[in-house]
Design goal:
- By secondary structure, the chain is α+β, with helices and mostly antiparallel strands.
- Helix content is about 30%, strand content about 20%.
- The protein has 14 helices and 15 strands.
- The strands form three sheets. Strands 2-3-12-5-4-11-10-6-7-8 form a ten-stranded mixed β-sheet, sandwiched between helices.
- Strand 7, helix 13 and strand 8 form a beta-alpha-beta unit.
- The longest helix is centred in the N-terminal third of the chain and has 20 residues.
- The two termini are about 25 Å apart.
Length: about 425
């Protein structure tokens, strides 16, 4: 299937050429793919590994262990040029433990399970008439997967948060496999997946589709695997003669395993799995056919599995590209970077984790307008429009007789709604 995957990519590149991106002296690589680095929301370039190490060096070990001993009063007095008595008083008054209230002491215990912590803070806030806003906000943070959603200025729900913290002890109790705790300095990157839809001819709308948190010491292939795409699980073939054959048919991911990230002018290919090929070779060869402004791009010496996020230099808010299945594009950006904190999930196996998912309308069946579509029907003589999305129940009732024989001429292609991933 290597030839088919290459053909899909070459057809996609030809589409770029026909749409105005292939003339001599035309758009640059970033301009063609919509990567505009001069807009106001794009931040400066950040070396992920250096940023993590520099900031951790300044903030110290408290980001890995809350119980680490701080400076003694003598060292504080010497550094601030104050008396030891005042320094000792500062260590007591300015300690982070002094910022808690008596009702808060119980649920901040480090050995408390997540579910017990949620129940405890809920009881404190609801039944003890606590007016402390920090506790109310903490309750929302722990229960945000249930009752907290983000809204835009119109008041419409855009996406909901689905993350939760997992302790090593809790994860080990739920899973027999051993877990690796986070013990080294880490940076947590928030990767936002953008869903671009065409609302009108020539008008496109970009919305948040997914948000993920990934650690700086993890590799790009781990991030690629967690990004969900409904097309990856769709079955390849035409199934109008036998709808049941879709169960044994191969998926697009099975036939086209290759993929690449395009980040800051560098291609990172996914060469795992049998039949995988370096898709970026076709893009580089295509870019050299004419003067398309792609002179600065290059291919990474290592593939996705050999490249960690800490080795990258990224711009916050700048769109990057994931291409897989030959011609399926996903736009993503690093929207935030911060240091790992004890309140985060405590084991590497919990990352990358999905922290938010977009709220989109599902593709309803064109016949019943109730169920989610399962089939894309084309070249149909009986339906008023083609293509048409139909659910499994309607396509069987409308296009097959009581014995299961096909009625009329049409083609049935497998379809998975994006919301089902």
């Amino acid at each position: 299937m290597e030839g088919e995957e290459s053909a899909r990519l070459e057809k996609f590149l030809q589409t770029l050429h026909d749409s105005g991106g292939g003339g001599g002296g035309g758009q640059t690589a970033e301009g063609m793919l919509g990567f505009y680095s001069d807009v106001h929301w794009v931040g400066p370039t950040v070396d992920v590994g250096a940023w993590r190490d520099d900031n951790y060096h300044h903030l110290g070990d408290e980001y890995l262990d809350r119980d680490v001993k701080g400076l003694d009063p003598v060292s504080i007095a010497k550094a601030l040029q104050i008396s030891p008595t005042i320094a000792e008083e500062l260590t007591v008054v300015c300690n982070t433990r002094a910022l808690t209230c008596p009702a808060q002491q119980r649920f901040v215990a480090s050995n408390m399970q997540f579910a017990e912590k949620v129940r405890c803070i809920d009881n404190v806030v609801r039944h003890n008439d606590v007016s402390l806003n920090t506790l109310r906000m903490r309750r929302l943070r722990f229960t945000k997967g249930v009752d907290l959603s983000f809204t835009d200025y119109t008041g419409c729900r855009l996406y909901r948060n689905v993350s939760r913290r997992t302790d090593v002890a809790e994860a080990t109790a739920d899973d027999a496999e051993p877990r690796t705790p986070v013990t080294e300095p880490e940076a947590v990157l928030t990767v936002t997946l953008i869903k671009v839809s065409k609302t009108h001819p020539g008008v496109f709308r970009a919305r948040v589709a997914r948000e993920y948190e990934v650690l700086s010491r993890q590799s790009l292939d781990v991030l690629k695997d967690v990004i969900s795409c409904s097309k990856s699980n769709e079955k390849v073939g035409e199934f109008s003669d036998d709808l049941g054959a879709v169960k044994d048919a191969p998926s697009f991911q099975d036939l086209y395993p290759s993929a690449f990230f395009f980040i800051e002018g560098v291609f990172y290919d996914d060469l795992r799995g049998a039949g995988a090929q370096r898709l970026s070779d076709h893009v580089v060869a295509w870019s050299r056919e004419r003067d398309r402004g792609w002179g600065g791009v290059r291919q990474s010496a290592t593939d996705m599995s050999g490249t960690r996020l800490e080795e990258l230099q990224v711009q916050l808010g700048k769109p990057y590209l994931l291409l897989h299945l030959g011609d399926c594009e996903h736009v993503l950006m690093v929207s935030a970077i911060r240091l790992y904190h004890p309140d985060d999930s405590a084991c590497y196996e919990e990352y990358p984790r999905e922290t938010a998912t977009g709220l989109f309308r599902r593709k309803q069946c064109a016949a019943c307008q109730e169920l989610t579509a399962d089939w894309l029907v084309v070249e149909d003589d009986l339906l008023p429009c083609s293509p048409a999305f139909l659910c499994n129940r309607c396509v069987r009732q409308f296009h097959y007789d009581h014995k299961g024989n096909k009625v009329g001429h049409f083609k049935a292609l497998h379809f998975i709604d994006w919301n089902a991933t």
